[in-house]
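Sequence of 50S ribosomal protein L27 (Flavobacterium arcticum).
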Amino acid sequence: MYSTIQELHSYIAFAVLGLLLIAALNAFTGIAAKRPFLKKDRQIALIALAFAHTQFVIGLILLFLSPYFEAVKASGMGAAMKDSTIRLYVVEHPLINIIALILITIGWSKHKKATDDTTKFKKIAYMYAIGLVLLLSRIPWSAWLD
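Predicted 3D structure, token representation.
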């Protein structure tokens, strides 16, 4: 079960990264072109948001089924913090990704309250881009690309 969820988490990660990149680029081009914020712009951002939240839920399930989590339970958090691999999977990756998801969600929420099109694009562009950078910073690349 763990390996199935891990594979699902990896596949959805590709979709999340791609969709966040598309949403951020779409918003930046909307700012540059000074075009109106259309329904399709909202849908692109919403789909990226939905995939990011889905990925988060799958990641939480994966975390609690993980052998790394079991190692933390067995040896304690102090020992886990001394092991860089366990620390990455149990502390750094989840924490930074939660922060990224919060920023993406804030960008979505703020864009809904904005009244002009440029502000809507800016809220999505900047918050989604920062979230994307944070997500990219904590991906365990060596394990992910195996």
